[in-house]
Write a structure and sequence with these properties.
2 copies of one chain form a homodimer. In chain A, about 35% of the residues lie in helices and about 20% in strands. Chain A contains 17 helices and 19 strands. The first copy, chain A, is globular. Chains A and B meet through β9, α7, α8, α10 and α16 of A and β9, α7, α8, α10 and α16 of B. Chains A, B: GO terms for molecular function: FAD binding; glycolate dehydrogenase activity.
């Protein structure tokens, strides 16, 4: 369903060649911050979405804010596009380089600047790993809540750029709900502070705008996040179901019972079997679906909630409900879930990971639709869901070496996303739009809505130099893509939710 | 400290006169939706900040979305500015009309469209009162958390426009954290949907941008809010202190003890006495300060927290800690706080209510600074704080009939706001910038930062027709105001936090 990438569709008209850009940059930046040889550039050709690969023109790895300012001013003057990269774990190609652009790699900004246990905040550089923040806060009994599955490797700058979620975001929110302030450098090389250490800031909420902006508005150079007190206890229940739709229905029942779990995850049979084979988490391999429901807080409270949830699950038709006996088993239950993607990778030469978000009540309907598509196209689909917040990750398995299988996988993926949009959801939850879903944005939004996005983008980056070709499609690109759609009779549903 | 209002400073160049505009509008709008006679316009000359009064050119009270579309298209074509008004309870003059502008009054959009207990959402028209949402949700055991003191009268559209807070926002967040989706009509008369019923939406976070946008980006026509389950129990502790700084310090101690209260409010002696005189809430009139600390949740949990907080308060030097005996006394404790503003109004012919937000740890320092300013200028100041989130409401008492007192009050107010900015806070918490603090925005932000705000504004409203002269000052205005500042030697501190 993706049109082959064509930079001209994104309105890019690069002027200078690599030698010219390098010459200008080396006048003001130290040699060691600029990589230019093929063998040095190659490791940066893709991020976590490795089906797209582009060797960047140059890679900049600055050490200081002053170097970033200089880099930005020079690129702005030369009209050279800039793509920013954090840990490179993104799953939508948001950090995919441009052949005629500079890749700005932020890994050298990896200091934890301050942990303030009274204010419950951490001030960190963007290259700090997500999990490292919680580790640094642990001595104070605090932690940073959003926990994408890649939390051991992904960095907070990328988390902000993608508005990352994770297992706990139903209860504790997405990245945007846990960030107080970011320092940025604009494409013109100017420093700005968005948000504040105080609870609210006047003017437009530019801080929220930067969360999920996918590197299109500015370079994030510092992040202040909220820290939360570690819950006194956390307990996890695992429920087995002989029917995947029953499990989907149980999710809504738990929420309707007045419980907001710390985590509420669902896996279907294929995902269970793959994870069990890989991790030996103790999952019931014969089940059609499992739910993992974590309850956290004060002990008495958690015990009450466990009893309530157990009752709900049993009434919803669970064939078995097990509570993790101890911390070790709880960690094991989660390890199976957190490693579900690599586990599925062991079942199939290739897989395509989707990231649609749907209203919770539509879970059974969407699961049924996915099963039908899987049958129709003869491709296995493993389902791993942040079920509580309706964020679905169908993993479509295929073999790229079999002619036509990649195209079939892309077709199924596109149809799944359209199903998500149809039931009132969106084409992405936490992985972002990036390069991957740039065309699907034309399905989700109307031209006049995309025009507003572009105008907001221009407010920060008039020349369109920051991460062009990602996140917000040009109207030109949508016209191309829309033509295909009309041809296939798949025009956007008139009742689609917009924005 | 406010420059006398001058529309020319806001770049407005009105062209048509009232008769011309009215003639054009009556061609497409029913007569009953358009008020034009002096006696019909007069009731709308101010909002809750009654020191500013302007009779609008015309008042439009549409009944249907189609009428709003028509109104917008016509005003856009004629280049007539539009100010939107909800319940008119705003405290910063955000709904102050323009002499040469149309005032769009949204009070006829007051229907609750849907309460969905499973999804825990309410879909309502913008004119629905804040408290009415909770009343409609009560049969399902749910409520809408943000509760500004004006909640009995203020409407949800205005809450979104001002990103309203309230007593419970420390624990449950500001309006922006509790809104899932808004429907808007642009100045060009087009409908858009921002956000979605799903947990996340792709593209830039325009929904967050609308929260606190003070009517400058579009007309809010529908709001979907999150509902929360009503806590099983809520208990409130009232602590007395013989020293206001000790009370300020105790606020930080409670948070540092790992407790996030449902509400954490502070009042000083003057505010206590005024409230007690008005409401007979049982406040200790001899105390220098009181803290009201509400703890909510599951009963066992709340009892634990009550014991912890009592210990913290006693160690912090509280002279007395009382727990409300029952629901009636709890309601009474809060009634005193929620009526503190009108209560102070009974003590003094006039008062000027400030709304600065500061980092929690700076409470003692700012309280001391306010006391010194009060002494220096000989004006009484009553302090009412949303202490938990650092949102301060000093009420400066004066008598406008005494020559020079208004000016003195404005000077003290300006100095308090500058003190807030100096300690890392902001010039507004929940009341917004509106007309009142338009000049202080020049203190808080640098010209290049204001330029970004203007560019974002232009992305939605290129001609600058929506609520001009509020929220974001023109650079022209700041240049005028800045000149005054340089003259008085009060240039912005170089270390001020920005944005």
């Amino acid at each position: 369903m993706n049109i082959l990438y064509d930079e001209r569709l994104d309105g890019l008209l690069p002027t200078l060649d690599k030698a010219q850009v390098r010459e200008r940059l080396t006048q003001t930046l130290p040699d060691m911050t600029l990589l230019h040889r093929e063998e040095d550039l190659r490791p940066f050709e893709c991020d976590g979405l490795s089906v797209y690969r582009v060797v960047p023109m140059l890679v900049a790895m600055p050490d200081t804010l002053a170097q970033i300012e200089t880099l930005m001013k020079t690129c702005y003057e030369l009209q050279v596009p800039v793509v920013t990269r954090g840990a490179g774990t993104g799953l939508s190609g948001g950090a995919l380089p441009l052949e005629k652009g500079v890749l700005l790699v932020m890994t050298r900004f990896a200091k934890i600047l301050d942990i303030d246990p009274d204010a419950r905040t951490a001030r960190v550089q963007p290259g700090v790993r997500n999990l490292a923040i919680s580790e640094a806060a642990a001595p104070y009994g605090l932690y940073y809540a959003p926990d994408p599955s890649s939390q051991i490797a992904c960095s907070i700058g990328g988390n902000v750029a993608e508005n990352a979620g994770g297992v706990h975001c139903l209860k504790y929110g997405l990245t945007v709900h846990n960030v107080l302030e970011v320092q940025v450098i604009t494409i013109e090389g100017e420093r700005m502070t968005l948000g504040s250490a105080a609870f609210d800031a006047p003017g437009f909420d530019l801080l929220a705008l930067f969360n999920g902006s996918e590197g299109m508005l500015g370079i994030i150079t510092e992040v202040t996040v909220k820290l939360l007190p570690k819950p006194e206890v956390a307990k996890v229940l695992m429920a087995s179901f002989d029917d995947v739709e029953k499990a989907g229905k149980a999710v809504g029942d738990i929420i309707a019972a007045g419980i907001i779990p710390g985590g509420l995850e669902m896996m279907d049979k294929l995902a269970i079997q793959a994870a069990e084979d890989f991790i030996q988490a103790g999952y019931p391999v014969e089940a059609e679906a499992i739910l993992l429901c974590e309850l956290d807080g004060v002990e008495a409270d958690v015990n009450d909630d466990c009893a309530t949830v157990r009752g709900v699950l049993e009434r919803a038709g669970a064939t078995e409900v097990r509570q993790a006996r101890d911390e070790a088993e709880r960690a094991l239950f989660w390890a199976g879930r957190k490693n579900a993607f690599p586990a599925v990778g062991r079942l199939s030469p290739d897989y395509y990971c989707m990231d649609g978000t749907i209203p919770r009540r539509e879970l059974p309907r969407v699961l049924k639709g996915i099963a039908e598509l899987s049958q129709e196209y003869g491709l296995r689909v493993a389902n791993v869901f942040h079920a509580g917040d309706g964020n679905t990750h169908p993993l479509i398995m295929f073999d790229a070496n079999q002619p036509g299988e990649l195209e079939k996988a892309e077709t199924v993926g596109g149809k799944i996303l359209e199903l998500c949009v149809e039931v009132g959801g969106s084409i992405t939850g936490e992985h972002g739009v990036g390069r991957e879903k740039i065309n699907q944005m034309c399905v989700q939004f109307q031209p006049d809505e995309l025009a507003v996005f572009h105008a907001v983008k221009a407010a920060f980056d008039e020349k369109g130099l920051l991460n062009p070709g990602k996140n917000i499609p040009t109207l030109h690109r949508c016209a191309e893509f829309g033509a295909m759609h009309v041809h296939k009779g798949q025009l956007p549903h008139p009742e689609l939710p917009r924005f």
